[in-house]
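hey team, just a heads up i'm posting the complex here instead of the shared drive bc the drive is being weird again. everything in one block, sequence lines first with there labels, then the predicted structure for the whole assembly after. its two chains so it's a bit long, scroll down
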Amino acid sequence: MRATRQQILARWLGVLIIVSLWSQNAFAHPQKGEAVGFLTGFRHPISGLDHVLAMVAVGLWGAQLGAPAIWLLPVAFPIVMAMGGMLGLMGIPLPGTEYGIALSAILLGAAVMFEIKPPLGVAAALVGFFAIFHGHAHGTELPPGQSALLYSMGFVVATGCLHAVGIGIGAVHRWRWGQSLLRFAGGLVAMGGAFFMWKAFA
Amino acid sequence: MRRVEQSRLPLYTFIGFTFVMLAFPAEAHLNTTGMGPFYDGLMHFLMSPEDIVPVLALALWSGLRGAAYGRRALFTLPVAWLAGAFLGLSTANAVIHPIIAAAWFLLLGGLLAADAKLSLRVTTALAAFLGLYHGYLNGTGMGQPMSAVVVLLGLVFAIFVLVALAAAFVVRLQAQWARIAVRVAGSWIAASGLLMLGWAVRTR
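-- predicted structure starts here --
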C-alpha cells in the first residue's frame, strides 16, 4: 500500500520537528568550547606540508647529530618559533617568509642527506634562524577569536610532536641501512623544499 | 478490505513534544559536577588550563631541583593559594590581564626548560606569588562565603595532589634523557607563553 503525498509530507514534518527540537545544551561560557581552540591550534602546524617537512627534518637531523643536539634542537625550535609567532601577531613584518620556510626545508634536508655535523652552536643557530620564519608565518595566519591559551598550547604541542616523529624515525640511524634511509629521507625533504621554493617564486 | 489511512502527524508531534519535555539542565556554570562544592572546586582547577599549567611547571621545576624544593613548593603553593582566595572573596570582580597569565607561563616554563638553579628562598617566593595571584583570581566573584570555602578547599586539595605527584615523579628521575624530556615540556610551556603574549598585544 503506497502512502499518499500528504502522508509523506506529514512524516517528514514530524521528523523535522523532532530534529529541530532536539536541541543541545547552550554552552554559554567560553571554556566549554575551548577544546576547539586546542584542536585548531594543534591542526595548524600539521596542515602545511612545508612546515611539516622542516620540523620533521629538525628531528631527523637531531637524531643524526646525537646528544646533546637531539634534545637541544627540539627545545630551541619551539621557543624561537614562538618568538617569530609573537612578531607575526604583533604585526611586525618579516620579509621573505615563504622563501625562508622553503629554504629551511632545503638546507635541513641537505644537512640530513649529507650527514653534515657542524658544531652544536651552529646547528642551533641555523635551526633557530629558520624557526623565526615558520613562527612568523603561523603568527600572521592565526585566526582571530580563538582561545589564545589553548590555541597556543595546541600549536606548540603539535610542533613538538612533529619533532618527536623526526627523532623517532631518526632512531634507525644506529643501523647501517637506517643511515642510508635517513639520507634518502633528507633528500626527499630537500626536494620538497625545492618544490616550495619554486612555488614561492612562481 | 482497504485500511483507512490516518495522518501520523499527531503521533510525530507527540514524540516531538516528548523530546522537548526531556530537556537537559542548562549548564550555565562551568564545572557543575553535581557532587557538591568540594568537587566543583576540584574540577574547576583541573578544567582551567590557565591555572593548572603554571602549577605543573612549578611542580616539575621544583622536582628537578630536588626533594627539598619539591616539599617547599608542595606546602607553600596551596597555602598561598588559599590565602589569596580568601583575600579575593571580598572582591566582586577582578581584571584578569592576559599579559600576566602569559608572563607566568613564560617565567615558569623558562625556568623549567633552563633547569634554573635558583635558591630555595626564590622558589618559595615564586610559589607564594603564584598561589596568591591565582588564588586571588579564583576567590573573586565566588559570592556566598560559606560554600565558597568548601569550593576553595576542593581547589587547594587538587593543587596539593598535583604538585605532590608531579614533583615526586620528577625527583626520582635519574636518567638524563628523562630529565631532559621534562625540560622539553618546560620549553613548550614557555613557547605557549610567548604566543599568548603575542595574542595579548596583537595589533591585527
